[in-house]
What we know:
Elements: E1 8-13, E2 25-30, H1 34-40, E3 42-49, E4 60-62, E5 73-83, E6 87-93, H2 96-110
Antiparallel strand pairs: 1-2, 1-6, 2-3, 3-5, 4-5
Amino acid sequence: MARILRGEIYWADLNPVRGREQAGLRPVLVLSNSLFNARSETVIAMAITSQPQRAGFPLTFALPEATLPSPSWVKISQIRTISVDRLGKRLAAVSPENLDQILDGLQELIT
Length: 111
């Protein structure tokens, strides 16, 4: 697989899951550092959904319309470490500014 960079969006197979975790084949946003991704063969990622979200920031972040083919939200509370073997096709990337906002949302949730 090509180098996986922070801020990129990939298809990922998130099955099997438990409870209320995001399941199935869905886009994910890679948060982890590119060097970490290459050396560990895992990525830290957040699930993305195309279902309209009632929860606003910091639980979700609406991606700019041009990022993916349909309106999409990053589920900031749905963060997990996954093997790069779960990743499929690269779909897009978020801007550094959007990535900073998403990370700010995560920081609000964990502090």
